[in-house]
Write a structure and sequence with these properties.
Elements lengths: L1 E3 L7 H12 L4 E3 L6 E3 L5 H11 L9 E3 L3 H5 L7 H10 L4 E6 L14 E5 L4 H10 L3 E5 L11 H8 L5 E4 L9 E4 L6 E4 L11
Parallel strand pairs: 1-8, 2-8, 4-6, 5-9
Antiparallel strand pairs: 2-3, 3-7, 4-7, 5-6, 9-10
Length: about 200
Amino acid sequence: MLLHLHPDNPQPRNIKTIVECLLDGGVIIYPTDTIYGLGCDIFQHKAIERICQIKQVNPAKAQLSFICYDLSDLSKYTKSISTPLYRMLKNYLPGPYTFILPASKQVPKILKSKKDTIGLRVPDNNIACGLVRELGHPILSSSLPGDMVEEYTDPEIIHEKFNHIVDIVVDGGIGGIVPSTVVDCTGEEPSVIRMGLGVWELEER
């Protein structure tokens, strides 16, 4: 199913349809503030396994991240955040960043990496945030399968390519071509492990 949502004011009825699909174990493709992502409810294990089959990866090695609604939501899925770290996150979020943080007990075991970390995002995108708000907890986020994922910007082309393996493709308009900037916050100092759309300037911290 290809379902159109207005990028600035997503239709509540369509948001509800997508959330019902997620709660039923569905897999979706949806827009973020960077590239279109492959997603599901983080508590639907079979849906997580479906995404990993689509991506042909082991869940613990899949580099999956969570789309959170805001910093308060994000804080549930990582261990205690220090004041300097909170200030840094507040400075950069919402925005095109994925922060690697220690996973809390709220993170399903299937999604924890061997290092017991999780990638967390708060995108600057009304559709993604609207879905998370209605769902009541994060959505899993992963890039689309294949080597040319940056070319998947048009929802209609995405639907033609992937409609047989996902339940809903959310049309939120043309997507971006650059993924998020990934910052590892598990060491003494934050370190960029992938430079993407988000500008990272150390002096801002």
